[in-house]
Amino acid sequence: IVDNHKIRSAPRLLLLTLAVAGAALAAWDFRSSQAAGVEVATLLGDSGIAERHPELAGRLKSEPCRFTARLLLSRALVADSQDVRWTAGLEDEERRYEEGRILERLKLAESLALDAYPHLPAAWQAPLLVGASRFFTLWRIDGRALLGRTEEWLQPLQTAMEMAPRRAENKRMLATGYLTVWYGISEVLRHE
Asked: Please, which contacts does 172-176 make with residues 24 or more away whose CB atoms are closer than 8 Å?
């Protein structure tokens, strides 16, 4: 004998369960989004990007995905490291200090991109930013190190190129790397 009351109440129970689960998920997502905003705000302050690029800081703070925010911040750090305005006209001691800060920001850019990549595996920007931050770090420390440690920066750039071969950023960064070490690389790499 089948109890008709239990059969009729089953869909209601299922809907109630789904509603409670949805509310719990929304609360978790809200807390996660708030934590991501605090994390991004801290990184912005520590890196100096908030003062240099306030419009970007606002965008990053409102980005709901913390991993996308990390890639955006990584991109800003790499681009900022190439801006000569931050070191132009500085005295030697100030310039050395700022160069050290630039290297720290490049390491942070690499770390942010490496952290985001597993969570956004289709994001071609992650390997591009890893390769670019490594390239510019080695270039700033000692340009000759680029040739001896080619695989460190070249492999991520090639991965980015494979993921998004039509993206101009990938082509430009890979060309920059190749041209910098052109005379020291093998014939095989030159013909690729």
From this structure: 173/128, 173/131, 173/132, 173/135, 176/135
- The tokens of 3 are what? 């109890």
- 128-180: per-residue pLDDT in tens? 999 999 999 999 988 788 888 888 999 999 999 999 999 999 999 999 998 88
Establish how many alpha carbons lie within 13 A of residue 10's alpha carbon, considering only the half-sphere containing its beta carbon: 6
Are 158 and 178 in contact by the 8 Å Cβ rule? The answer is no
The predicted model scores a pTM of 0.75
170 and 128 Cβ atoms separated by less than 8 Å: yes
Do 127 and 159 contact (CB within 8 A), yes or no? yes
